[in-house]
Amino acid sequence: QITTLINHKDKPKRSDKTLQAIQRVGQAVNLAVGRFVTVGEAIANENHELKEEMSVACIEARRAGETIAQLTDVASLDHPESDSHITIFTDKTGVVKAARLLLSSVTKVLVLADRIVIKQIITSRNKVLATMEQLEKVSSFQEFVQIFSQFGNEMVEFAHLTGDRQNDLKDEKKKARMAASRAVLEKCTMMLLTASKTCLRHPDCESARINKDGVFHRMRLALEQVIEIVTDSRPNGENEMAPISIYSGIKEFKNKVEGLRENLYFLSKENLSTMLEVILEHTEDFTDSAYTSHEHREHILELSKQAKMELEQLVSVWMQAQNQKTKDLMEDLEVAILKTCQCMNELKREVHSAATSLAADLLKYHTDHMVLKALKITGVEGNLEAVAEYTCKLSEQKEQLVEMCRLLRHVSGTEPLEITCIHAEDTFQVTGPQIISAAETLALHPSSKIAKENLEVFCEAWESQLSDMSLLLREINDVFEGRRGEKRVYLSLPRPGKHNANLKALKPVKLDTEEQAKIAKLGLELHLLTSDVDSETEKWEDQENEIVQHGQGMSSMAYSMYLFTRGEGLLKTTQDLFHQAEIFATEGTKLASALHVLSDQVRDDDKPLLLLEAEKLISMCKQLQATAKASAQGKSATFTKVDACILKTRNVMTLLCQLLPLCCKLLRKNKAGNGCLKPAPPWKEDRIRTGTNARTPERRVETFGIKSLENHVTNMTFLESK
């Protein structure tokens, strides 16, 4: 609204409609500021230490809002230009000043409110820590029950505060770290209960004390990490050193290599060599691992050797091109760039295959939880020798799973998934010894019900983490294959090279800043439509369905075209955009074919609508293809062509938003047994059956088990009353 006022163009003639619109905007700003300030003042009254600062910021915001309302009070003026009353027309700078003051004061209010939220979380954490210290020192069961009830209530409060904060975080990496810390606190709350009860029941048992101490230590670390994320700081001013994965290393390396197309001088050959060395050092995590298969190890070593050779060849051509920029040399450089990137892609594919196949095998092998079952049985029997034997087996299993997490981190594909891998590694690393100490306690006290319950709790945590790993593995595969996570980018783009027949004919150009500004609105509409299409495809149960696959592909291509309008992404030139538009249109035609196949199975009453939409889609895609292929000479004509391509892509995406729910509805009717689809011919049955067996990977929702905490508190209160 403020931007609308500031950008309002002065015109000699002002209609009543214009005057009323300006006044409505001014009043709306003032009302919004009033509501905002009321909340700010209420916060100030509850927090005396920041009351003065908050009150000043609120007064400034209110004053600025009122000034804007006064300057836009123009609807009642017949001739505002001749009136002595100061308005937006006579004092444009006054509106600008008021707007700046308003934005400045609103920002102050938000920053102060944020400080209050952070302080609330820190205060809540301090309460939890203080109660934890009391819990560690209790010597009687009755005292423990009373303090744990208080601890449970404090943890519920902490859970609510940190949950709200997690939702507010914009940084996906911080969000993932917060989710991991809160998951630790949730699981550890139950562990703390049973471990403390076991220690109270068997005060002289060393393994019970070790078990309890481990839980308290882990909770303190998790609480500390939450505060680090909330305050955006680390103890002693240390900088967080994020571990570098092979996936991110290859991604950065390829970006640098491809950057040579634009600029031959922006980095040194030593930089590229160092980057490759770091990547190859990380591949040693795979080649040195006892769990990597011989075949994968050989392939990784072979590709590492090839990568060095390709880089040497690239550097040689690159250095020559710096001295003498001939056409042949530039084409040789293009070939060297393509070969280097292809080699890195193959290396990435190989390490991904090595990590995910190991993970799949291990998770399948350990799915029966035989070692955990054996520990429970031998513990109840009091068989210390057998417990010792199975704890060795659990330690081996722990080492395998920790190694699996380390390798998966290298190929996870996104920072949040990397953090989830690190969290899983820590969980196995810590939970393994805790299960062992709990099993030893049970073996020493085989008749103890509380020791048995304690072992159960730690075993459940282990099983839960294994289950989470199956979901994590699915997500990592989805990101690698382009079905989830980051938007897929289509790499089928023309690159100047020896085999490009149109090399001389093409003169790729970029949009300048003014052109980007003109096309920004259209690009934004395209972006919103890609979100709508993604939202519709998410609703489909069968993610392998041909219609969904084409829809997702078109959405990804439209997204890269949106990025082009912002001067971002892999579509660097107008020629890249036109080529992408052609591929987009081809994908749309394939989708129309899939719709025709569906219409063959649909009953007569649903068939006409589906065929009509399919014909519309084919017509639109043909128009887009014709536009993309049409020649355009000169800057103005090229921009007109860009504008037309984006516009036609937007129209196709709009139709796609209508098509997807329609097809989904027909398929659901069929699944519900309403008979909207005809039986498939026998030759299609196998294909249909295989398609519908595919399930969408469930997204893990990292939540703090507030309900489970409240249940712990209720149970303890009930126990206390007994």
Architecture overview:
- The chain is an all-alpha fold.
- It has five domains: 100 residues, Four Helix Bundle (Hemerythrin (Met), subunit A) (Up-down Bundle), CATH 1.20.120.230; 103 residues, Up-down Bundle (Four Helix Bundle (Hemerythrin (Met), subunit A)); 112 residues, Four Helix Bundle (Hemerythrin (Met), subunit A); 115 residues, Up-down Bundle (Four Helix Bundle (Hemerythrin (Met), subunit A)); 159 residues, Alpha-catenin/vinculin-like (Four Helix Bundle (Hemerythrin (Met), subunit A), Up-down Bundle).
- Helix content is 77%, strand content 0%.
- Helix 3 runs antiparallel to helix 4.
- The relative contact order is 0.06.
- One of its GO terms (biological process) is Rho protein signal transduction.
- Belongs to the vinculin/alpha-catenin family.
- Keywords: Cytoplasm.
Instruction: Provide the low-confidence segments as ranges.
Output: 78-83, 485-507, 674-707, 716-722
Oligomeric grouping of the chains: single chain
The helicity comes to: over 70%
CATH topology of the largest domain: Four Helix Bundle (Hemerythrin (Met), subunit A)
* Total count of strands: 0
How much is the radius of gyration in Å?
32 Å
Largest sheet: none
CATH hierarchy class name of the largest domain: Mainly Alpha
Average per-residue pLDDT, rounded, comes to 81
Count of structural domains: 5
Distance between the termini: 62 Å
Strand % is under 5%
CATH architecture of the largest domain: Up-down Bundle
Molecular shape: globular
The class by helix and strand makeup works out as mainly alpha
- Along the chain, the helix and strand elements come as HHHHHHHHHHHHHHHHHHHHHH
Number of distinct helices: 22
CATH superfamily of the largest domain: Alpha-catenin/vinculin-like
